[in-house]
Write a structure and sequence with these properties.
Shape: elongated
Distance between the termini: 148 Å
Helix content: 25-40%
Structural class: alpha+beta
Number of helices: 6
């Protein structure tokens, strides 16, 4: 359009009409006389605007999809997602059963020891080279996790929390050489300190050099002041070897831990300590000895032997 006197007058007229409509719309509020026209325009042009917005703003669309996950997908995308989830579920039944079993065992330990725990999953492992044994779990400060909290699973002591992020935390495993925990022997109450040795049994220095200890004896955590970093009564392991007593101030024993540190999955962080020391209540039941079958052999003389004896007589 050329810049003529008529075009300028038309532009001024259109602007004046627009301001008049805006004024009427604002004063009318919900009962605005132009509300019907606005809704009609939205019905007609809304899909076009959405299509154009999706085409020209892919980043904003992606962010919106992530933020409102599952609420704005079309039916086809929802069905594809459901099918993928179903296939994943059908393909991981064995793993799910394994995890449920781990969770049940862990909840049993928590109940017997009266530990308040926060469940977590292992999402990463540290390098085992140079005797550095750590794991990363998917729970952090936002879940109430703090440094120097005890970590356990359905078998016993896993380690302690060393660093905490908003949504993850690092756990130093009990078999790391930098790991030390106070222990107490079952029944005898002999105290000691257990240290990690990587993939070898834990080394335990008993404070009493003349303590009576034998293979098969069991240990639990002794506990720390204010229950940090260790709560009492968590199963540690079973004595597998005893060094001969040399008359020293301490005695060394080697303990096979209950926990398999190379196959961790579901763990629990103790966020609330028990009101009372559970002592040996959390230890698993001792296996009952299998009786050795006794076989009695009765020899019955054969008929041939009887006939031979009669002939000799």
């Amino acid at each position: 359009m050329r810049d003529t006197k008529e075009s300028r007058l038309l532009l001024v007229l259109l602007v004046a009409i627009a301001f008049a409509l805006i004024t009427v719309d604002i004063r009318g509020g919900r009962n605005s006389p132009v509300d019907g026209a606005r809704q009609g325009a939205a019905t007609v042009f809304g899909p076009v605007e959405n299509g154009l917005s999706s085409a020209v703003d892919p980043v904003g669309n992606a962010v919106s999809a992530v933020r409102d996950s599952g609420s704005r997908h079309d039916r086809l995308a929802a069905l594809e997602k459901e099918n993928a989830a179903l296939k994943a579920k059908l393909g991981s039944d064995d793993r799910n059963r394994s995890r449920l079993g781990q969770l049940d065992k862990m909840l049993k330990i928590a109940g017997e020891g009266q530990y308040g725990i926060k469940g977590a999953q292992v999402v990463a492992i540290g390098s085992a080279q140079g005797f550095s044994w750590t794991i990363t779990i998917d729970a952090g400060a936002n879940d109430g996790i703090k440094r120097d909290m005890t970590v356990l699973n359905g078998d016993g002591l896993v380690g302690r929390v060393t660093t905490v992020g908003p949504d993850t935390a690092t756990v130093l495993l009990a078999n790391d050489p930098d790991f030390t925990v106070g222990t107490r022997m079952e029944n005898s109450d002999e105290l000691g300190f257990a240290s990690g040795q990587g993939d070898r049994p834990l080394r335990v220095e008993l404070l009493n050099g003349k303590s009576e200890v034998k293979k098969g004896d069991r240990l639990v955590t002794f506990g720390s002041q204010a229950d940090r970093p260790f709560v009492p009564g968590v199963p540690v392991g079973v004595v597998s070897r005893v060094d001969p007593s040399g008359g020293g101030l301490t005695r060394t024993v080697y303990v096979t831990p209950y926990v398999g540190f190379t196959k961790l999955d579901i763990v629990g962080v103790v966020v609330a300590a028990p009101k009372h020391d559970p002592r040996d209540e959390v230890l698993p039941s001792k296996p009952k000895p299998v009786p050795t079958p006794t076989v009695t052999v009765t020899v019955t003389p054969s008929a041939d032997t009887t006939d031979t004896d009669e002939q000799q007589q």
